Amino acid sequence: MLAIKIILIALCAVILLISLILSLDIKVVFEFDTNGRLTLLAKLLFYKLYDIKQKKEPSSFGRYLKRIFGIEALTDAEEIKKDTQESGISDTVSRLIAVLSLLAGQISWLLKRVRIKKLHILAICGGSDAADAAMDYGLVCAAVYPFVGYLETNAKFKEKAGDIRVGCDFENDAHFEAEITVKIKLFHVLRAIFRSALDSAESILDNADPKNNNGGIQQ
Question: 96, 139 in Cβ contact below 8 A?
Answer without folding.
Answer: no
